[in-house]
Design goal:
Helices cover 60% and strands 6% of the residues. By secondary structure, it is mostly helical. The relative contact order is 0.15.
């Protein structure tokens, strides 16, 4: 049962990356979120936050795509590659660096926490996700109920999305564009 819940999340992540809806994910599909993030947040190419997001998505892509000989992953291949990535303790930093890079962008006020408005901007402007989904994600990510998502909560939320089969751990998917 646990594997089924995670597989469903991984399939939703695949769908988020498969922008052209051709049933495969290729390296270029990992460029699209970077372009959207930098555009919507108005980040110059030489901004350290834009560079960090680009590097993090590139690393994430190469770790997933490295398992495919043809440079394309079907949904089943993507799910298997993502499962192998998150199950490998030596590669835990790949997802963590992606979460940390996203935190630096989303924390627009530079106060080391993400407000409801900041998470809503990510959901709406970047991922086109409905406000109610963003609110639910915010409540799940704000584990100490202080009205803000700290860096640890943010990073931990993405990790939980990818590893914890509990439905209450799905909020971190919003960071990666999962509805």
């Amino acid at each position: 049962m646990a594997a089924d819940a995670l597989t469903a999340r991984y399939e939703k992540l695949f769908d988020a990356f498969d922008a052209d809806k051709d049933g495969t994910v290729e390296s270029a599909d990992f460029d699209r979120p970077v372009e959207r993030i930098t555009k919507m947040y108005g980040l110059a190419a030489d901004d350290h936050r834009a560079e960090a997001v680009q590097i993090a998505y590139g690393t994430f892509s190469s770790h997933l795509m490295g398992t495919s000989g043809g440079g394309r992953l079907s949904k089943d291949q993507f799910v298997a590659a993502l499962r192998a990535l998150v199950d490998d303790p030596a590669r835990v930093g790949v997802v963590e660096s992606l979460s940390k890079a996203m935190f630096e962008v989303v924390d627009r006020k530079r106060v080391d926490e993400v407000s409801q408005d900041e998470l809503q901007f990510l959901a709406d402007a970047v991922w086109d996700i409905a406000p109610n989904v963003a609110w639910d994600a915010f409540e799940q990510l704000d584990t100490d109920s202080d009205g803000a998502i700290g860096r640890h909560e943010f990073v931990h939320g993405v990790h939980e999305f990818l590893t914890n089969p509990d439905a209450q751990a799905a909020g971190g998917g919003l960071v990666l564009g999962v509805r």
